[in-house]
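Now for today's protein:

——
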Amino acid sequence: MQPSMDELRELIEWQPPLGVVSVYLGFQPEDRSSTWRTHLRNGLEKVREEADGAEHERRVALRATANRMLERFEDGAVRPPPRGEACFMEVAEKEGAERCWPTGVEPAAPAVVDVARQPLIAPLVDLARRGAPHGIAVISAERVRLLVFAEGQLEELEDWELSVFALDWRERKAATTPDPAREQGISSSGHDQYEERLEHNRERFLAETGRLASERLRERRIDDVLVFGSPEYWREFADGTTHAQLHAELADRNDLISAPLGRLGPEVSAAVERARAERDRAVVERALGEADGVRQGALGPQETAEAIAERRVEHLVFDAALGERAEELVRGAVEGSAAITIVRDELAEMLAPCEGVAAVLRY
């Protein structure tokens, strides 16, 4: 459902002769009044008002495009996705190019309607980031479930189970009269051997499923997995992920191996939010620390924009409330293959002294 990096780059380069109308809508299933429709109509009305002061060709094209956008969402045959949609239409008198993505994550604002020379992409990057897929592993000693959490939804990929069979060995019978103490020693030794083999099989099982999980998640271009289960089993599972450089992180110690998806959903969603918040904080602290002279960094919109233009930015981080300045920064970061982190609330306050923008530099 999300745009790929290649699609984002294509969108950045898209510049139709008369511009683009960009629309972001958030849908709340419980909202029976469809408030989003009011937001959409109000936004498109401003587009029509802008057309009043334009030259004839652009005025006609803007009005026609606003009408097509309204018809697209108000047509009863077109049902909005669960949480939102990002849609871009070429300004044209007759039907022009159109690129739209449904989103499982609700946009930060109820509705955004914009008309400009190029698409408005900063909110789309934010949506893609917040809806990015995460690998989820629910583990026990003898069972591993592999899932993917993306845009608020859980999908189960694999359910591996260790089949435990009785270990086969025979005790030799003594030629002499049985010694009860010796018999007890043999029995104890045999039990210990069984437990050792069983434990070894469990370790192999967890490491192997870690390896298999890495392969499945790499197929989906996912490079991290949050693990639910005992720390003891997590370490063994994580050992199997290391060869693929999959980042495994223990998210929850509770035993959820038999939990249905409906119960797992809220637990996983909360864990993903915690993990994202921790990583965002680490990025902000790193950007601020490196900009203070520990390593290469940039502070403030101007210094960061210059570094982006020189393709020196490794990771851009900025306040979600940055406004219009965010668009240019995001475009440059995407073109330069830089990672992007958009923060809010407490983390945004940390960026306030540098006007809401900082960056980790490559050199």
Q: What stands out?
A: Residues 5-130 form a domain with the Translation, Eukaryotic Peptide Chain Release Factor Subunit 1; Chain A fold (CATH 3.30.960.10). Residues 180-219 form the longest helix (40 residues). The first strand starts at residue 20 and ends at 26.
